[in-house]
Amino acid sequence: MSLRQYLIKQKTKSGELDNALDSLLPDPNVEKDAETAKTVTVANSSVKDVLQSPNRKRKRGEYSNYSSEQRAKIARYACEHGNTSAAKHFSKLLDKTINESTVRSMKKQYIDELNKTPEKKIVELSRSPKGRPKLLGKYDEEVVDYVKNLRATGAIVNKQILIACATGILEHKCRSMLQENGGHIALHRSWAESFLRRIGFVKRKGTKAARKVPANFDELRVEFLASVSKIISENNIPEELVMNFDQTNISIIPCGNWTMEEEGSKQVEITGLEDKRQITALLTCTMAGNLLPPQLLYQGKTDQCHPPVKFPKGWDIHHSENHWSNEQTMLRFIDTILLPYIHEQRDRLNLPLKQPALAIFDVYAAHRVESFINKLQKAGILIKYVPGGCTGELQPLDLSGNSQIKEVVKSCFTAWYAQQVGTQLKAGKTVKNVEINLKLSNIKPIHANWIIQAIQKVKDQKGVIRNGWVRSGMLTVDK
């Protein structure tokens, strides 16, 4: 709290600011010397005037701007006649006061320029750039040109794309500047956001209703957790057979719905964000920390829409007209993913053939189809729905697993994009002429390999999967 704030507070208590000040300032009446008492009185009066002033902030002086030519003339005159003479001469000539310190800084800059190129006559002297130096230095403008050219074609511009293209440009121009190569530059999301804001780009996104937790969430949570615990206990279900499955959309170009557009734009045309540029990954995890093979759904009517990639054994690669799960794909999911896993675990753990398993999932439409529910029950799989609107708080894969897989895919995309930029620059293309082929025919098989890497990486981290169960409250970890 400042002195003035304290005194204002005293004023509200005592009713008078003067009284508060008098209690804090020296009392002139105790001074024996009349001259000293007079000095104290004058000082007290000055302090009161300042503290009681409604606006104590010092008014900023006016800044004078000089053209590059004027700065060069002032600096040259100062070199020949001295700083003080130059200040007086140009104050009169330009009809405004020029401080000697201003002349001094111009002169210093002028001499520095002369030392760099002594044979050159300096007729212009630009101002020194304000603020922090740009992280990318002389390569900053190349990245700016690339981003603006990219957006002019209607392509996606976001932080992920920016980091990738900047990395590619630096890898080609001066790879030693990058932190991974021992340099000082680390390109992260906060830098990308600052960069885009500096060049006049702002976030634009399609309208989407915010997810709301039910008003009685606490009550629903207690009932849900109690029910899950009861089912597991009564049926003696091991952690390996307590499963959660969930659909998550993975963009072929991993950049979400955000794009960057120049500030003031009324409409944002985004090439490459159509729904067909996504796939659905139906993931399944267990309370024991296992991540089962996924079911990947591509958009199409035949196997021709599948990427020409050899997927790991046990994965179910299928399709639907809109790449969303439906009754047919869910029935297939039981046969290709759930049942093989459950049979394997029953054998491995020496469990009875009719040992029940528990499947926990949300109330998505395809999960409530009668044929699907009947098939689960016939296979000895008990069902527990996550309460509607509570998946973000109670569904393990939403809490830990889905996001980690998507982050790995994003990292793979960034590395690939940067490599593409660097390769084209090495081949002699200019930054403005770099074109990255993001057509489905080209990117789909590459994207499939990213998904393989991502799922394998998360599968190897059982702690990541178990963390979702812990955060949901269904699993307690001993401290």
From TrEMBL:
Transmembrane segments: none annotated. This is DDE-1 domain-containing protein. InterPro entries: CenT-Element_Derived, DDE_SF_endonuclease_dom. Residues 45-67 are annotated as: Disordered. Residues 276-426 form the DDE-1 domain. It holds the Pfam family DDE_1. GO terms for molecular function: DNA binding.
